[in-house]
């Protein structure tokens, strides 16, 4: 069930970042808005890349793909 | 059942993607990636069980599947290449998706080469020179 919480978390961050962006823009702090959006995006990126690396590790172990990273394909 | 659970997760993910995509395109794409990863991790357990069964069959009935591990590797590469290229196609990056598929094919060819050579050698033995 933790997957659904992850989805909600990422979606929540996305919506919050978008709201912060619009609020800051209305307050007139345009550059701060861009910084906030960037930081929010980086947080989500870190979460996604963490899961991607976990997936690729699992794939590598399941499909016996150990040879790829030693540069020796045969 | 477990399958229904994963289908529900995917539907919820799809709704969230549509919601976030209006406000923030890039995070919407990251949500697509996360949903894909969740489904693939779920599928991977099942595939691992399948491979265990196949290996047991091979060892118990001493069926001499020569290149079983090569077959597993090729399936793995096809698996990841498909995941990545569909992801890129979803983000309207057709050109890069095609490149990814090309890379996948080349790696599969590299892995299948020994089998190809073995087949050629057996063929050559039949030809009386």
UniProtKB/TrEMBL annotation, chain A:
Pfam families hit by this protein: SpoIIIAC
Membrane-crossing segments per the record: 6-24, 31-49
Keyword Oxidoreductase part of the UniProt annotation: no
Residue stretches in coiled coil: none
UniProtKB keywords: Membrane, Transmembrane, Transmembrane helix
Highest taxon of source: Bacteria
Protein name, entry field: Stage III sporulation protein AC
Native source species: Tenuibacillus multivorans
UniProtKB/TrEMBL annotation, chain B:
Keywords recorded for this protein, A-Z: Membrane, Transmembrane, Transmembrane helix
Transmembrane is among the record's keywords: yes
Stretches that traverse the bilayer: 6-21, 28-44, 102-127
UniProt key word Heme: no
Protein name, UniProt field: Stage III sporulation protein AD
Source species of the chain: Tenuibacillus multivorans
């Amino acid at each position: 069930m933790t997957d659904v919480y992850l989805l909600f978390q990422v979606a929540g961050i996305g919506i919050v970042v978008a709201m912060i962006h619009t609020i800051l823009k209305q307050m007139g702090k345009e550059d701060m808005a861009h910084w906030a959006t960037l930081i929010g995006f980086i947080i989500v990126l870190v979460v996604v890349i963490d899961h991607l690396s976990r997936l690729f590790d699992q794939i590598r172990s399941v499909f016996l793909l150990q040879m790829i990273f030693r540069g020796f394909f045969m | 059942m477990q399958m229904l659970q994963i289908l529900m997760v995917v539907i919820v993910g799809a709704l969230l993607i549509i919601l976030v995509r209006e406000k923030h395109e890039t995070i919407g794409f990251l949500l697509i990636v996360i949903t894909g990863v969740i489904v693939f991790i779920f599928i991977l357990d099942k595939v691992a069980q399948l491979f265990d069964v196949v290996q047991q069959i091979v060892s118990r009935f001493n069926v001499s599947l020569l290149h079983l591990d090569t077959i597993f590797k090729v399936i793995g590469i096809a698996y990841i290449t498909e995941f990545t290229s569909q992801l890129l196609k979803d983000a309207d990056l057709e050109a890069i998706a095609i490149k990814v598929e090309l890379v996948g094919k080349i790696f599969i060819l590299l892995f299948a080469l020994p089998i190809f050579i073995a087949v050629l050698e057996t063929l050559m033995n039949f030809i009386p020179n």
